[in-house]
Design a protein that fits this description.
Helix content: 40-55%
Number of strands: 11
């Protein structure tokens, strides 16, 4: 009996009830309240700490750029990371439908389609990522819908883009810009300021919050509110790490993610209401298109859908958008 009790005592000591190692969360932006990635990561980290876990948020790209973050996640070297949509697109291009200009009306429509509906589209994307060792925690919001920033030329119609070069995040944006009759140049965000100074690009297509976070309002003085596309970020987790968690820790992580997702939805809608005023306070001239000019952008942008995704995906997204439209 004494031997049995000693064995049980040893087992109790060596099997901790929760994940004992540090949980690392990586974000690329600085730790500022305007950055949804940082707010989201800190939200999860706070919940984990309150449950007795060790969690640290690494900001400003301290753990690498997005491809390096995804590589670390797939190997189980990093637990949670916030990246741009391109990291999912490289595995499953269907994700572009959630970003397609004018597919969804606004961010609340986007959240209804991604959080309130059991979409087979998103389920299939999740499965594709799981096969690569990545678990999608959420497609997170970062502010309002997208528009065009320029440094010298106010844009009030497609014709105003003649001679303008816009920074593109990837080839999908270049395909969109082609329909607008504008040249796109792929530039990593850390190099964007220098690219503007060197005359390589004249602006970018982004939600307003991006210019506020990175202080690009110091040289991007014009913004056109297109309402063109629902921008999102990717909250990703290491699939191997998650699968190796004990039941109690999985519950803690799942609850932390659910709470962060709900808070991000509220945060995003609030940010969308305030960011235009934020641009104006920083000296940016904000333009709203006349109805005919806006319709021109919409028509051209929807033509680009055919280059962003297969025809069957377009029909599936149209059906999802219609089913979740209010």
């Amino acid at each position: 009996m004494k031997h049995v009790l000693m064995t049980l005592a040893i087992a109790f000591v060596i099997v901790p009830p929760l994940w004992a190692d540090e949980i690392k969360l990586a974000v690329g932006c600085p730790p500022v309240p305007a950055c949804a990635d940082w707010v989201y990561a800190e939200d999860i980290a706070t919940s984990l700490r309150e449950a007795g876990l060790q969690a640290t948020v690494f900001t400003g790209g301290a753990l690498g750029k997005d491809p390096e973050i995804v590589d670390q996640l797939s190997q189980g070297l990093l637990q949670i990371g916030l990246t741009n949509f391109v990291m999912i697109r490289e595995v499953d291009e269907s994700v572009l439908g959630f970003l397609a200009p004018y597919m969804f009306d606004d961010m609340e429509h986007f959240f209804r389609a991604t959080q309130d509906t059991d979409s087979t589209i998103l389920s299939d994307i999740r499965s594709s990522m799981e096969a690569q060792g990545i678990r999608i925690a959420a497609l997170t919001g970062l502010g309002g819908t997208m528009g065009i920033f320029t440094n010298e030329t106010p844009v009030n119609a497609v014709s105003d883009l003649d001679g303008v070069r816009l920074r593109a995040i990837d080839s999908s944006q270049i395909a969109l810009f082609k329909q607008w009759g504008v040249q796109g140049v792929v530039v990593d965000m850390p190099e964007f300021s220098g690219a503007v100074q060197q005359g390589i690009v004249d602006g970018y297509f982004n939600p307003p919050v991006v210019a506020l976070i990175f202080r690009h309002t110091e040289f991007l003085k014009y913004y056109t509110d297109l309402g063109a596309g629902t921008p999102f970020r990717s909250a990703l987790m290491s699939a191997d790490w998650y699968a190796g968690l004990d039941t109690d820790t999985k519950i803690v992580v799942d609850e932390a993610v659910l709470k962060a997702n709900a808070n991000n939805r509220i945060w995003t809608l609030k940010a969308a209401k305030n960011e235009i005023e934020g641009l104006k306070k920083n000296g940016v001239t904000v333009s709203v298109l006349a109805s005919d000019a806006l319709e021109d952008f919409k028509t051209r942008s929807q033509v680009a859908w055919e280059e962003l995704m297969p025809e069957e995906d377009i029909e599936a997204f149209r059906a999802l958008a219609e089913a979740t439209r209010q």
